[in-house]
């Protein structure tokens, strides 16, 4: 349901649209050429991405090819298209360039990745308590207690500067399509400094990552640290992840956990943050990660937390079942991905190994 409020003209209209974070991304209803579609808000994507099936049903015509670099830093040539009308609430945005590609998450959930080339046409107010998204051509007036986060645009995408223990971290991407809190490359100098601090417990491991063009297992390290500064506000017990050759970024959890309301005023190139005053979650993902590969349930990731419940399980090991489901209970990879999204919200996961040993997998919490 969409509500529109206006006093004078279309430019003063402010639409409110319900959204969900169930898929770990911010998803809401929009339209592609008049066809109702789930949109995932992604300020880290220069252009939108639409699956081949959705392009067909929404009468989107492929116009050529475009070179794309995805979130795993892979370079590929993909089909490009121009969408005649992208509708958000009562706002119609015309002739929008997009990439046509069957990224597994988007294809399986029939979601359009809403890129910054559309996002930047409007101003946004995200209320994480009411789970409502407001959009407008006019700015949203921030309250006096809101923190201000200026941004710059590079190839449509949003970048800012944050300060970690007195050191400015410049050109940090604001990536609402990244489903975690904060991530940097493991050769980032500030991360190397944080690792050397004996107060910071470092947890390493491997996990699967889904980019636009591939699904692969990456090594990672994670820790919590004190003294992140935004505006004039200091935050402690902040979670940061690292993996090789990755762009530094803050994700949707940065905003959904730190703030109750986030305003994106593209008209003034500024974010405004109403703090939630709630502790930041230091919980990790499950100690072990599975994926459906060639009709088998395979361990594709695990962490090396000292209290991990997955110590007996090996990477690339096949398991018999997860939460009572065997590999042949999933129709295909999409069926598994949809199940995986729902299962990730649980606190535990039960695995049965090929030797019929039952193991309850939990989620660990970083030391604060």
Short description:
The protein has helices at 52-57, 104-109, 116-119, 189-196, 252-258, 333-343; strands at residues 3-5, 14-20, 27-32, 35-41, 48-50, 61-69, 75-88, 91-100, 111-114, 123-127, 132-136, 147-150, 152-154, 157-164, 167-174, 182-185, 203-210, 215-225, 228-230, 233-235, 238-243, 249-250, 259-265, 270-275, 283-286, 288-293, 296-303, 318-322, 325-326, 349-353, 358-361, 363-365.
Features:
368 residues, single chain, mainly beta, 16-stranded mixed beta sheet, 6 helices
Could you say which overall geometry the principal axes of the C-alpha atoms support? globular
Report the major sheet.
16 strands, mixed
Q: How many whole angstroms does the radius of gyration measure?
A: 21 Å
pLDDT averaged residue by residue: 92
* Uncertain ranges: 5-9
Task: Count all strands and give the number.
Answer: 32
- End-to-end separation in angstroms reads 41 Å
The assigned structural class equals mainly beta
Strand content: over 45%
Report what the structure shows:
With 368 residues, the protein is mainly β. The protein is 11% helix and 50% strand. The protein is built from six helices and 32 strands. It has a 16-stranded mixed beta sheet that branches. Strands 1, 2, 3, 4, 5, 6, 7, 8, 9, 10, 11, 12, 23 and 24 form a 14-stranded mixed beta sheet that branches. The chain has a two-stranded antiparallel ribbon with strand order 25-32. Strand 19 (228-230) and strand 20 form a beta hairpin. It is globular, with a radius of gyration of 21 Å.
């Amino acid at each position: 349901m969409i509500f529109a409020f206006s006093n004078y003209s279309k430019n003063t209209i402010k639409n409110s649209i319900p959204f969900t974070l169930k898929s770990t991304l911010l998803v809401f209803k929009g339209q592609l050429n008049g066809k109702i579609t789930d949109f995932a808000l992604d300020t880290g994507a220069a252009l939108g991405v639409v699956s081949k099936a959705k392009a067909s049903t929404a009468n989107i015509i492929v116009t050529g090819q475009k070179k794309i670099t995805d979130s795993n830093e892979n370079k590929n040539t993909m089909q490009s298209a121009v969408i005649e009308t992208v509708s958000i609430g009562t706002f119609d945005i015309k002739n929008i360039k997009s990439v046509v590609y069957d990224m597994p998450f988007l294809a399986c959930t029939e979601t359009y990745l809403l890129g910054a080339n559309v996002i930047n046409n409007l101003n946004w107010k995200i209320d994480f308590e009411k789970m409502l998204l407001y959009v407008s051509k006019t700015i949203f007036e921030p309250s006096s207690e809101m923190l201000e986060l200026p941004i710059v645009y590079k190839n449509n995408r949003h970048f800012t500067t944050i300060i970690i223990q007195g050191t400015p971290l410049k050109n940090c991407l604001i990536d609402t399509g990244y489903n975690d809190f904060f991530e940097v490359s493991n050769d980032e100098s500030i991360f190397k400094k944080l690792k050397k601090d004996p107060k910071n417990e470092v947890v390493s491991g491997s996990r699967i990552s889904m980019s636009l063009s591939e699904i692969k297992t990456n090594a990672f390290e994670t820790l919590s640290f004190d003294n992140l500064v935004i505006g004039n506000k200091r935050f402690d017990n902040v979670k940061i992840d690292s993996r090789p050759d990755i762009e530094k970024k803050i994700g949707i959890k940065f905003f959904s956990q730190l703030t109750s309301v986030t305003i994106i005023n593209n008209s003034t190139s500024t974010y405004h943050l109403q703090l939630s005053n709630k502790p930041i979650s230091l919980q990790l993902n499950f100690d072990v990660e599975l994926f459906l590969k060639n009709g088998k349930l395979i361990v594709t990731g695990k962490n090396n937390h000292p209290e991990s419940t997955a110590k007996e399980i090996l990477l690339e090991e096949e398991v018999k079942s997860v939460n009572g489901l065997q590999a042949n209970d999933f129709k295909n990879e999409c069926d598994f991905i949809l199940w995986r999204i729902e299962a990730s919200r649980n606190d535990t996961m039960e695995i049965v190994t090929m030797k019929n040993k039952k193991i309850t997998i939990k989620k660990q919490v970083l030391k604060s």
